[in-house]
Amino acid sequence: MARAILIGISGYGRIHLGLARAARPVGLELVAAAVINRQEEALEVARLEREGCRIYPDYESLLRHEAAGADLCLIPTGIAWHERMTVAALASGLSVLVEKPLAGSVSEVQAIAAAERAAPGRFVAVGFQDLYNPEVHAVKQRLLAGCIGRIERVRFLGLWPRPTAYFSRNRWAGRMAAEGVPVLDSVLSNAFAHFIMLGLFFAGPRAAEAARLAKVDAVLWRTNAIETFDSGAVHAVSPDGVEFWFGASHACATTREPEIVIEGSAGTLTWLHEREWRLETSDGRHESRAIVDAHANRAAMMDAVRRRLTDPSVFVCGPELAVAHTSLIERIHQVATITAAPGPVEIRNLAGIEGEVLCAPEAEARLQEAFARGALPDRVVSSVPPADGHRSFGRPNVCG
């Protein structure tokens, strides 16, 4: 039985807690956890203690007392704490499953990679859950075998409305940094990071590699009162000439589930999130297969990490792969300026979403049109709204 410890049980920590419990029948036992908000989580703490899980007030004491008897450390914490906690866990002799994105800067990813190299027999797995889906690797092999010829262009678009409360749910949401550590949290680095990573992975030159980008440009828009951006589009080119277009928004009235379109010299492969992938070739062949949902991907991720503890051949998304995403996000902030979203802002109450959503309909329309063209939307010169939570929108339209 492999033994795991967990840093945090609130927020996304609940997901990791559930995954660890579900993995017990197949050989993973949660033996201890760090809980900094014990009073708020009193019921869950009581349940954990009944299950025999020991509770500590912080991750330092958790590692100090439990690392020697454990194999794996689960780190579903905020971006600003990934590097310090991962390095500490590795130094304590543990392998790590850390939530995505791996870090807010390439230098932190490099520090994690160095710590991994200094811990023989230990590994870091990053929680890009879709990469643990066997269907992803089946598609990658098809692409490497030339099912659509030479890959020429990869496009992605996703629209997920988020209420204003989403951007104040923790200390780092929508922030450039937290506690002096880079975060670069945004629509492209967090909720839609999975699909950026998938697009880069599908276009990677080898089975376990992602594409690297030589030229990057972006249009970044802000509607909510945050430091970073909630709508944006990126155009990039790899050293071998593959074009990439990534776009997404949380300041939208429409939900458009993530779609990745991979265009080649002899066909197109389309990946539709939690639905299916479709292959259409220039000689008239058509093929499609169903894709499992996020819950199944997370379960596959935890199972892969558990098996990797005893079998080094099992695939996990390590720092050398995850850095492709961090590098792109860091580059976006170096080359582009965040501006206010074009057009009027509307306050919407949308079905299925608790709380008001600030929408930028013109920005949403421009993203959809730009996705179809595979080019950046036109830039709009405008003032940047303040990021102090007190943005004035004049007289916004209120829509039901």
Number of strands: 20
CATH superfamily of the largest domain: Dihydrodipicolinate Reductase, domain 2
Average pLDDT metric:
94
Low-confidence stretches: 381-400
Number of domains: 2
* Secondary structural class: alpha/beta
For the biggest sheet, the summary is: 9 strands, mixed
Give the CATH class of the largest domain: Alpha Beta
Based on CA inertia axes, which overall geometry fits?
globular
Please identify, by name, the CATH architecture of the largest domain.
Answer: 2-Layer Sandwich
Q: How much of the polypeptide forms β-strand, as a percent range? A: 25-35%
What's the N-to-C terminus distance?
A: 53 Å
Q: State the helicity in percent bands.
A: 25-40%
Number of helices: 10
Oligomer: single chain
Going across the major beta sheet, what is the strand order? 16-15-14-13-7-12-11-10-17
Calculate Rg over CA atoms.
21 Å
CATH topology of the largest domain: Dihydrodipicolinate Reductase, domain 2
Name the helix and strand elements from N-terminus to C-terminus, one letter apiece.
Answer: EHEHEHEHEHEHEEEHEEEEEEEHHEEEHE
